[in-house]
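Onboarding guide, step 5: your first structure request.
Type a short instruction followed by the sequence, for example:

Predict the 3D structure of this protein.
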Amino acid sequence: MESTIISTQVSVKYCSLCQGDTEYYCYGCQQDLCIQCKKLHVVDLSTKRHIVTSYVEKMKYPPKQVKSSQSQDPKQVISVQSQDPDNHEPCVIPFAEYKPHQFIPPVWLSPLECSEIQRQQYSHRIYHLRGETIYYRSVLLEGLKYDRNTGHKAVTIRGQSKAEMRGQGLKNLIDDVLAGDLGDRCIIQKTRMTRHMTKLLRFYRRFKRLSKTMETRPVKFLRIMTQKHSPRKDDMKPIINMLINLMKRIRLIPSGIPRQAGEEDLLTLLSSPVVQKSLSVTGFKQCTHISCVTPDRVWVSDEDHLILTDTATGKQLHSVEHSLKTDNGIHTVNCKGELIYIDEECNIIKLCNDMKTTTRLIKHTDTTWKPQCVYCSPSSGDLLVGMCRNDEDTDTSTGKVMRYDNTGKRKQTIPHDDNTPHTLYDNPCFITENNNGDILVSDFWRGAVVVMSSEGVHRFSYTRPSSLSLPASQLEPLGICTDVMSRILVSDLLNGIVQMLDRDGQFLSNILTRQTPGIDYIPRSLSYDVNTHAVWVGSGSYNNNTMSVCRYINRHLHLIDEGEQHGD
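The system replies with structure tokens like these:
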């Protein structure tokens, strides 16, 4: 019998990043990943929004839409818990077609499709655990390791001696209470009580004898019973005082308070900023101001347009026709993602997410003051409006900042007195708020970043650090924003850079210059994305409609590597 030789070729997939064994697949960047690269991939801020799945799930559940909801929004699908007598599987009915008290023929799904729906429902929890929870616990674990090592080193011979001294002092206080004078007092008190009981018993017997002969003579017995025979208060005062002093020396430390990690523990500065992507915005000559809605959508404006832009393609999604024709920061976004902008009549308008409904929040009535910029506080929802008044006689301008609540009611004026000359602002062009409540104004004509506290007290004005070597000695500030760690980013149009300051106005570094790879224009507009901790940068060069995403913050990726190596 002849032997048959079967020749087969096996295709082995390796990780796209390290040539390890492939176990996962990323739909976002279409890469094969090993288990270690997957852990880094879902934590890295630049890729944490990518959909990563195991290769088994990729082959078992290829990406496709459920046939009953192909023409519907996935969020507009409801599940009706009825059963088919044949396969006993639930059905899915499009929400748009569902009406109460009306029979609708159910759409029955196969068991595989039902499993697909359930898997998609829990997928967002899996992504959150992978990208957020596990990393957060890794940071807490790192802090616990540090505290453990620090505490172990601190418990030295000197530390032990201090502990013994404190323990000995507490022991001495307790001995002072329990020994010596207290014992003697207890013996004396016991003797007195014994004598009193003996005397009381003797009078009781006399009372019984007297009661047999003279019923009206128990007066002496009653007088004895009403006398006070308890210990004197003056004798107890020293003991009570000693006990009080002892309790004051004992310090109680609350327990059960969970350890928390702040943003400074979770994030770190990159050694050099990275431009992740750049795109050309359709219909613009420059990008004078940016308001980030989501990582996929941003509002962009120049002197003539205000357009909602798709960041994947740079195409227009919606346009606002009657916005104010200026290159200042005339628009912002509230916590619901709704656009708030200044229209051509200087009113403050809110555009709802349906892109149809508009609400006039603030009506412009004082014609002597003109709004120049607006910002919505993410913490309070208040509106900060930078305003300017021109003096035709002296050819000068004066500025101020108005604070309104989310309904348009006036709350505060900065500076407070409208009748006194204002020297803080010339012309507020861009405005923002820091995490500590500070109000930051980019004043182009004054050549300074003016920072006020939330109460309206002037904190500092930044012009430029004396030690900074720049081609020009002045500062021309335009776009301004703050990051999650309260650092201040401001674009300098004159020198073509983006400077980073701390919350107190101390210069830290230049995070973007004309020499930064991927930046071939003068940075002008800035907008910080709190979801991805990246900053959107718009071009200030004429006839350059480029908008870029720059990352200068990332997570501590080494924690994931160390956790894998040590088996944590």
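Each response can be followed by summary notes, for example: The longest strand covers residues 267-280.
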